[in-house]
Design goal:
Layout lengths: L1 H8 L2 H35 L10 E2 L10 H7 L2 E2 L1 H28 L12 H15 L15
Antiparallel strand pairs: 1-2
Helix pairs in contact: 2-4
């Protein structure tokens, strides 16, 4: 059983997946920092520091208006739509930044050169016959079924 587990654990796909997860976690921190430390302050400066996280609708009469969302939640039932908006905006920004980063990486990766291999003569001949048949034209003596050798 130990040998079978060793074979499974050291299989190429498992190791590649493990490396991908570790790099993905580190890359996630980079993107999170890029959004949180660079883009969000710029958006905050443009919008005048607008913060949706304290927007809510009280659902209970015990909740006083004007409280911070955290305090309002302690007082009673509230519908915290501002937190949802903040998270949705953060997700949109992270997704867009990730799109830009992946797009830039794809441009940096060298595209494989198209192979200019010669098409074998028999394949080329068969392709020409196929094209003629598709256009409804006849192919030499094969047009007359009686002329086909048996």
């Amino acid at each position: 059983m130990l040998e079978e587990f060793k074979k499974f654990a050291l299989r190429g796909n498992v190791v590649d997946l493990a490396v991908g997860v570790v790099i993905g976690a580190a890359f996630g921190k980079i993107v999170e920092s890029l959004v949180g430390d660079i883009f969000m302050p710029m958006i905050g400066a443009i919008t005048g520091g607008l913060d949706f996280s304290n927007y809510y609708v009280p659902l209970s009469s015990t909740v006083q208006t004007g409280l911070a969302y955290v305090d309002a939640k302690k007082s009673g039932a509230v519908l915290g739509y501002g937190t949802f908006l903040t998270i949705a905006i953060n997700f949109s920004i992270v997704a867009f930044v990730l799109f830009l980063v992946i797009r830039a990486m794809n441009r940096l990766v060298a595209k494989p050169a198209e192979s200019k291999t010669e098409v074998p003569a028999d394949v080329q001949l068969l392709s020409e016959i196929r094209d003629l048949i598709a256009r409804g034209q006849t192919v030499g003596a094969a047009a007359d079924p009686s002329s086909i050798p048996r």
